Amino acid sequence: SKEYYTLLKQHLAPGGVVIQWMPTDLPQSQYTLAMRTFLDAFPHVILWYFPPVGRFTMSNTVLVGSNERIDIDPDWMRQTMEKDPGAFQGIRKYGLTSADSVLAHFIAREETLRRFMPQGRVNSFEHPYYEFYSPREYAVPTQERERANYSLLISCRGSEDFDRYVLKGSSTPDGARLRDAFLAEGIFLWGYLLQLQGGTTQEILHYYERAIAAAPWERNLRNQIVSFLNSKVRAYFSQGYYADAAALLRHAVEIYPESAEAHYDYALMLLYMNDPEGGRELEQALTLNPLLVSALRNLGVLAASRGEMDKATEQWKKALAINPDDVGTLVYLGSYLAGQKTTAEGMEYLRRARRLAPENPKVVDAYDLGVHLMHGR
Question: Phi/psi class of residue 16: alpha, beta or left (left: φ > 0; alpha: ψ in -120 to 50)?
Fold first, then answer.
């Protein structure tokens, strides 16, 4: 509400900012209402967007407001992210590994946003329009709601604000690289809008491949495209088109070979199709991310299917060393040990799984079987 934002504005420290998350699947009437209310409260505002990446399916925009002009310093951002990469691990996993990949998601500043935002009301305590929405608007399919909002974002996004407030006339190699990243994201945006409009896979990938060609070093860009491929994989898999799903997952690995998740998802599909190459993909996923517990768990399952129980046990124990509360691994290891002469040790793992997930059917079945085996001995 306007009153809430006014309170925040009054309590900001010098240079302080307020950040408001804005999901893009809101009905556009609510999306623009919230946007206008934020713009009405803060004299200085920047809008950013972040589409789905990898397995993360939510599409977001982020408003940043302040009492003072918000200065964007690409050189400082580069130095900071390079100096302490661990501090940015939360966004690095999405491919946002550099200042360029973050800054490429810039949309516009307050002057442009106010010019393009549809005229209308603001939300307040006295007139809480946001709370009294039309339920009919939420009956509109999510993709249609997102499509309307992304059309608005594309109309706001342009090189004028980016050149003026981000590049600031830089003609250095870093500046050229940043400009290319921004232009590549623009191409991606048009492809994403086509995706929301229900374009064909070939049409959408045409845009996405052009975006990669414009900034081939951008991991986040490739991760965004992997998200599209994953959405198509789910559709193919649900229809039983397993070979088509595997082909798209292989394409995801080719687009983003540095992604442990891409290799892992491809591995699961191959294993589902009884393709031995799945094991090698699991190992590649672990090479990229040695802490990927699910890959260790499934390597154990694969070894067990071959009768290599010592190797299976080794993989499961490695997984539990990383995450002692991984329920799936506790069930696999506990069930195996409970079936051997080490029933008591196996029951310890199964008890832990039961404490963590008492209503999980696989946990219940494994625990009951372990109890039966223990009393049988």
Answer: beta
